[in-house]
């Protein structure tokens, strides 16, 4: 139980939550561009965060990854262009629900 409390204490710092939010915003932007994958964004980010402390770097990478996966689904649903192989099923199912685009994006 003490380990769980220590883990949650570290990741509830305001600076880390801000980095996750910033990473999510940047990840949605990167994921929405067809051809730029989430893996590519995280691998480029590693070179920038190499000299950072562990927790801020991992928080930013988590935000980029999660935002990128969501952003990739937006182009797959709206334009039927999957930007990565992981969005092919989303493109097939989301674009087919043309009348319910609002529901598909949620």
Commentary on this structure:
By secondary structure, the chain is mainly alpha-helical. The protein has one domain. Helix content is 73%, strand content 0%. The chain has six helices and no strands. The protein has helices at residues 2-10, 14-31, 38-48, 54-78, 88-96, 101-105. It is elongated, with a radius of gyration of 16 Å. The termini are far apart.
Amino- and carboxy-terminal Cα gap: 35 Å
Global shape: elongated
Query: C-alpha Rg, in Å?
Result: 16 Å
Mean pLDDT: 83
| Number of distinct helices | 6
- Proportion of residues in β-strands: under 5%
Structural class assignment? mainly alpha
Strand tally is 0
Multimeric status of the protein: single chain
Q: Helical proportion?
A: over 70%
Provide the domain count: 1
């Amino acid at each position: 139980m003490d380990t769980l409390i220590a883990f949650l204490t570290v990741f509830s710092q305001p600076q880390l939550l801000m980095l996750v939010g910033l990473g999510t915003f940047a990840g949605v932007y990167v994921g929405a561009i067809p051809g730029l994958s989430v893996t590519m964004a995280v691998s480029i980010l590693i070179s920038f965060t190499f000299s950072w402390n562990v927790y801020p770097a991992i928080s930013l990478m988590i935000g980029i990854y999660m935002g990128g996966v969501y952003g990739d689904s937006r182009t797959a649903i709206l334009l039927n262009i999957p930007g990565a192989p992981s969005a092919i099923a989303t493109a097939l199912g989301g674009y087919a629900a043309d009348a319910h685009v609002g529901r598909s994006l949620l």
